[in-house]
Automatic annotation (TrEMBL):
Coiled coil: none annotated. This is Tripartite tricarboxylate transporter substrate binding protein. The keyword Amino-acid biosynthesis does not apply. Keywords: Signal. Pfam families: TctC. The keyword Signal applies. Transmembrane segments: none annotated. Belongs to the UPF0065 (bug) family. It comes from Neoroseomonas soli. Residues 1-23 form the signal peptide.
Length: 320
């Protein structure tokens, strides 16, 4: 790895010209590990980092690897084992992985990688195929209440934000989360294909993952999970009478065993990236909310999020 630390985050905020940025690039190359299949939210964040970082000259080239399954817990051990001590490697992860580690009781978790930065958060959206029998959220909720097992819902891996959202909705209808028919997929891409192919009756994922299909009329959005509306004409769960507000944060993690200087270089890189106007523009285009955190603040957030996620999973019966 070639690191060039002469570029400060402050200069990135000033908007360097492409030529100058390339002359002061931070990394000649970077390995980006996505513990999910192509086309989902984690893959989208990784590709967005590549797009903006290469455009600004912060990184010369990227190498991507996608290993999906079980909320990131299939790929995570591979990253931990193969990239130990490598300061030019990043892994995308987030809220889904926190829940999946707890649900699957995996020995390798976020504790085994190096926190670098929380980057974004976004609300979820509950969707059905365009020709679905469910015309609105009330019809969907009534069906869940009457017979949860008959309403298959596709989403990300078991124990993740999508699964938790369904569990909370079932609980709000007086049912147990374990009664639901949740179909876990290795990422937003496979889940999207299953919804469009009517393999499941509904789906839950981040707004950005389904927005194109919603806009094209191939999916119908029933509700979003944020505190305020994310899609025109689509109500939130909260305003629909369900006391549920939940978001899906995503971030970047370094390999285990990196030293303090290597970690700081990655933190400096994400800080410079976050300061770029191109990054702010991209977040707005994707519908992502800024959730940038680094250092001790990010570590404290992770500890709190793991405690709160475990409490919710216990409350809705997804872990014992």
């Amino acid at each position: 790895m070639t690191q060039r630390r002469t570029l400060l985050a402050a200069t990135a905020a000033l908007g360097l010209t492409p030529g100058l940025a390339r002359a002061q690039q931070r990394f000649a190359s970077m390995y980006m590990f996505i513990p999910a299949g192509p086309g989902g939210g984690w893959d989208g964040l990784g590709r967005a980092v590549e797009q903006v970082a290469r455009g600004a000259g912060l990184v010369g080239s990227f190498q991507f690897e996608n290993v999906g399954g079980a909320g990131g817990t299939v790929g995570l051990p591979r990253f931990v084992a193969q990239r130990r001590g490598r300061g030019d490697a990043l892994m995308v992860g987030g809220a889904v992985m926190v829940g999946a580690v707890l649900t699957n009781r995996t020995p390798v978790g976020i504790k085994d990688v190096t926190p670098i930065a929380r980057m974004t958060t976004e609300p979820g959206v509950i969707v059905v195929p365009a020709n679905s029998e469910f015309q609105n959220l009330r019809g969907f909720l009534d069906a869940l209440k009457a017979n949860p097992g008959a309403v298959s819902v596709g989403g990300g891996s078991a124990g993740g934000i999508d699964h938790i959202t369904l569990g909370l909705m079932l609980k709000a209808q007086g049912r147990n989360a374990r009664e639901g028919s949740y179909v876990a997929f290795a990422g937003g891409g496979p889940a999207q294909a299953a919804i469009l192919g009517a393999q499941v009756k509904a789906g839950i994922s981040g707004v950005s993952e389904f927005s194109e299909q919603i806009a094209a009329g191939r999916m119908r959005a029933l509700a979003t999970t944020g505190d305020t509306r994310s899609l025109t004409g689509v109500p939130t769960l909260k305003e629909s009478g369900l006391d549920i507000v939940i978001g899906n944060w995503r971030g970047l993690f370094g390999a285990p065993g990196i030293n303090a200087a290597q970690r700081q270089a990655l933190v400096d890189f994400t800080t410079a990236l976050h300061a770029l106007p191109a990054w702010r523009d991209l977040m707005k285009t994707r519908g992502w909310d800024d959730a940038f955190l680094t250092g001790t603040a990010f570590e404290e957030f992770l500890a709190r999020d793991q405690r709160e996620t475990e409490a919710v999973l216990r409350d809705i019966g997804l872990v014992t």
